[in-house]
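In this supplementary section we document a worked example of the pipeline. Step one takes a protein sequence of length 111 as its only input; no multiple sequence alignment statistics are reported here. Step two produces a three-dimensional model, which step three serialises into structure tokens for compact storage. The input and output of this example are shown verbatim.
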Amino acid sequence: MPIRREVSDFASLGPLPDENADEAVIAAHQRCLSQIESPVSDEEAELLIRLFGPDDCYGLAWTLLHLVESAPGGTPLTAEPDHTANEWLRRLWQRSRREHQTGREREPDRS
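The serialised model returned by step three reads:
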């Protein structure tokens, strides 16, 4: 499945900035991210997973996390991230393992 334009546009901005970034940079990420409708494809999730920044960027990282989790194949992590890896990748791994262990399908996160 081809990558949708909205996903490519967001990816072209690079990883989410930190909360100390210029407001215009954060706003550009927010605008592009808000254009992506879920579910994303597995290929899109593989691209999106590379775009987490160093913090939650005023909640944008949570939106990105939920988009990645919406892929039909789930989180595209095949191995546990190292303890020095991005906190959002570790969080995705923990959430996917918890889901796998309980044998339940993902429930929408209301946060």
